[in-house]
Specification:
seven-stranded antiparallel β-sheet; globular; binds flavin-adenine dinucleotide
Length: about 500
């Protein structure tokens, strides 16, 4: 059985986003402390560091002294920020920031804010650099960049001396050419390699091919020696894990070399340590879905190969009042097939986003003002839903409130077309119905959930996916735990 309750808005004052189950919470912000208010303050010319614009070198001892709310410095990736003026504007609350007071908060930051562009948000709070960089370099299990400063000439790069197991899984690459094509081949040795694990972009001779291998990311990043045409092809030999990136030469010249390695070239690091990559996508249509929700259709560049897996989200980035703002959105399908016999396959070139426009929302107002033909930056996908969990589920419950419906669209399509034992049933429960609503009414509660989320057998394999505003998700997860479901059986969609 699949249960999909309908829009059921539950906003806590000042907070309508989703939060991690048991992870980061959002706190209500005081009036006048919104993100837009923060941006205004940073543009006001006020000295936010207390150093009158001077940048200093900060020692670890000095950093440690600034560990109070009224004098709080935090180091992120080697840069030190005075976050005291930001405290009241922080959606995660003062206590969350204070966890990193006077210390290197990089790891903490990455756990909850990896996607937030803090360099832009906190640039007016920059105190300076750490004198001795206290953060560890990204945890690479292989990087050959330093040895590979020389031009790429088609030879397979030498690897650093690695432990036997790391060596076994580290991908490698090679390239060859014909009169009109350049083919870059990546050998991943991953047996179930597929198109969703390969993300390729080629912009102005800069080629970036990211391949996900387990929880690691392998990168080919090259400033190509010659220009190539806009469209590229990706071929995957799934069983042997071989990936081919095929580029069309602009001129039929013979390339003496592939190009110059760029910063991340030939590195194999944990996916979470790889920075988000953005490409500009064109807005091709905007359709009204409800009074406040629109379906945005974005077109990927021809030189991008990107497929967003079911259950994953992307980030949109816009510059608003001079500050880069990033927000997550979950792609949907343009429509759901009526009979669920055939999977509804997106064409690979378009991304559909169903977005609620808030009348006072910072990001969605700017988004709504985009004109057809305008461009917006779209990131690589993120998310940790394992498809295998859905494939092996005997009973799947989808609990959605408000725009928390978006991840359920592709999930529903996937579950009903690929998992034969699942049947579809929907329950609508409204928290603020109109007078003529004859159906169920109420807010999420333990008793409400116990009515609908029930195992049909004591030992059946259950998966419960939940998504909605923070209080809905957090309370929902707690109620489900109270009802005896394990964390293994619950998946909360969060960023
Ligand atoms: P905000 O500026 O954040 O405002 C939202 C609301 O809060 C408004 O009503 C505003 O008036 C109020 N508010 C803001 N600041 C304050 C304050 N200081 N005090 C009081 N009230 C305040 N959304 C979708 O529509 N579709 C999706 O597919 C989608 N997918 C998501 C996926 C993930 C993983 C996550 C975490 C979120 C997703 N969201 C989605 C939510 C989305 O990322 C944004 O949070 C949402 O679009 C609001 O952005 P905004 O900047 O316009 O609004």
């Amino acid at each position: 059985m699949l249960n999909v309750p309908p829009p059921q808005p539950f906003p806590a004052p000042g907070s309508q986003q989703r939060a991690a189950a048991g992870g980061r919470s959002k706190v209500p912000l005081k009036p006048g402390r919104s993100l837009m208010d923060w941006i205004r303050l940073t543009k006001s010319g006020k000295d936010l560091t207390g150093l009158k614009g001077k940048l200093i070198e900060v020692t670890e001892d000095e950093l440690a002294k600034h560990n109070k709310k009224e004098d709080c410095w935090i180091c992120i990736r080697g840069f030190v920020y005075n976050v005291t003026p930001y405290m009241e504007y922080h959606p995660g609350g003062e206590d969350e920031l204070m966890k990193a007071a006077g210390t290197d908060g990089t790891d903490l930051f990455d756990q909850v804010h990896r996607w937030v562009n803090y360099e832009s948000m906190l640039k007016e709070c920059l105190v300076g650099r750490m004198a001795v960089k206290p953060i560890a370099a990204p945890k690479e299990i292989s990087s050959t960049l330093s040895e590979e400063k020389k031009q790429l000439n088609g030879m397979l790069p030498e690897k650093k001396v690695l432990g036997a197991s790391a060596k076994d899984i580290t991908p490698s690459y090679d390239w060859f050419q014909t009169e009109s094509l350049i083919t870059i081949v990546v050998y991943t040795k991953q047996k179930d390699m597929n198109a969703e694990l390969v993300i390729v972009d080629c912009q102005d001779k800069r080629l970036r091919g990211e391949i996900i291998v387990g929880d690691h990311s392998y990168l080919v990043e090259i400033d190509l020696d010659h220009a190539v045409q806009e469209d590229l092809t990706v071929n995957i030999a799934e069983k042997v894990g071989k990936v081919e990136i095929i580029l069309k030469k602009k001129d039929k010249t013979h390339w003496k070399m592939l190009g110059q390695p760029l910063e991340g070239h030939n590195t194999f690091i944990r996916q979470v340590d790889r920075g988000l990559f953005y490409r500009k996508c064109k807005l091709v249509s905007k359709t009204e879905v409800t009074h406040d929700t629109k379906l945005f259709c974005l077109l990927l560049p021809k030189s991008t190969h990107l497929q967003i897996p079911t259950g994953q989200h992307i980030y949109l980035k816009q510059i608003i009042a001079g500050t880069e703002i990033v927000k997550p959105y979950t792609p949907v399908l343009p429509f759901l097939p009526l009979d669920f016999k055939e999977p509804s396959c997106p064409d690979g070139a378009h991304i559909y986003l169903m977005i609620k426009i808030y009348s006072c929302g910072l990001f969605t107002q700017a988004l709504d003002h985009l004109q057809i033909g305008d461009y917006i930056s779209v990131s690589n996908p993120e998310g940790n839903l394992k498809k295998s969990k859905v494939q092996t589920a005997e009973e799947l419950f989808l609990l959605a409130a408000g725009t928390g419906f978006t991840p359920m669209v592709k999930l529903l399509n996937f579950a009903l077309t690929e998992v034969s034992c699942l049947r579809f049933e929907v329950q609508f429960i409204l928290s603020q119905p109109t007078k003529d609503w004859a159906g169920r009414q109420g807010k999420i509660s333990s008793s409400l959930l116990s009515e609908f989320v029930k195992r049909s057998r004591k030992d059946s394999k259950v998966l419960i996916c939940i998504c909605g505003p923070t209080p809905f998700t957090e309370q929902g997860v707690q109620y489900l735990k109270d009802l005896g479901y394990s964390l293994e059986e619950i998946h909360a969609f969060t960023a």
